[in-house]
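Hi support team,

I'm filing this because I wasn't sure whether my run with MV4 finished correctly. The job status page said complete, but I'd like someone to confirm that the output block is well-formed before I use it downstream. Pasting the exact inputs I used:
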Amino acid sequence: MFESVLIANRGEIALRIQRACKALGLRTVVVHSEADAEAGYVRLADQSLCIGPAAAGRSYLDQAAILFAAEVSGAEAIHPGYGFLSENAGFVQRVEEAGLTFIGPSSACIRTMGDKVSAKRAMRAAGVPCVPGPDEALPEDAGAVLAIAREIGFPVIVKAAGGGGGRGMRVVESAEALPGALALTREEARRAFANPEVYIEKFLAHPRHVEIQVLADAHGQALWLGSRDCSLQRRHQKVIEEAPAPGIAPEAIAAIGARCAEACRRIGYCGVGTFEFLYEDGALHFIEMNTRLQVEHPVTEMTSGIDIVQQQIRVARGERLAFTQADVSCGGHAFECRINAEDPRTFAPSPGVITVWQVPAGDGVRVDSHAEAGYRVPPHYDSMIAKLIAHGRTREEALARMRGALETMRVEGIATNLPLHRRLLQDAAFAAGGVDIHHLERWLRQPAA
Ligand code: MV4
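And here is everything the job wrote out:
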């Protein structure tokens, strides 16, 4: 049972985690880089410690600095947020060995899911449907690989087992292109990831990105909290997410949600997690699991009424979940627009001082942000400065509330993608629901966009 939490992250999620800690009566320790010393959420913490210079590699990714900060502050638990060290099994193992609580799954679970081949094997064993392809790494023998590819049928996709999130993968259209693609992906895997293994799957040409949120305690109880659709993305960066995934039968989601929860029980998973699926031609296919809290968790909070971050901390403290699957009922619809400090046309980052900051409010509207008037957006990190979330009883009501919220939000001093969001919410295909993962990039290529 811990009474204090070190927050090893920055920006909106550092503030979000701090809010959850305070609601649970926990002491907060925020670590920050020199670039974030003046941020408002740093001053809100019970204690703050500068752990290094602006460059993430020398601060938010510096494992020794963070462990030392925990030691000197007496923090008993570490919340990693998302990104940075949140899915680094080596770091989590060091946290465990230091006798601290990592607010997230065990290093062993992170290691299993971090290897996309072993993740697929574990999911298949629990009855979760996967993308066609073997749940084993490819052999060295080129002839054997070709036989596997022919059996799946071209086009296939070669992926690095240590990759994920769009890194280390290559589409292969024909047998002739296979040896080259294999060699390149293997070389990339060797260089970029600790794991040189590669695997192969059927390539799905126009899927949607659908995910299922799970929550599990350390006593063998695991629940699923509904679906999200994150298909609206550019270069693997999500732009708008929603819950639930529109146009998919709730019974189909429920059946797979139950398998995801079962998979959690089987591997002894504790914490929050997300199962990522590709949805094509009416079927869901598992691709990978994220073992962290995700950026888009608020849309699930809005539809389920469950505070996911508070629950994540409670299960890390060893508490039993205080509700069952029958108590979980998702209602209405929610959208999240990621507001970035970037040029809405070129996507170039736009750091600098925010001079005007006016955020919307009203029924069903939520803003998760650490920004304020006078805040300087540093140039060293991800450009997301706010998440605008709107909930409604129906998808249409949520969309209308989001349109209204986007109209009233004003940010000056820096460029933001607010104009992009306003135009996207007028797009008929997006408004209808169910666009695929290529929709946004296609839409951006249109002259009118
Ligand atoms: C795929 C795929 C098509 N077929 N796997 C990209 C991110 C990583 N999580 C998996 N990704 C993909 N895997 C098969 N078998 C297409 C993608 C993909 C994608 C997936 C989700 C959201 C956006 C995407 C953009 C391009 C490619």
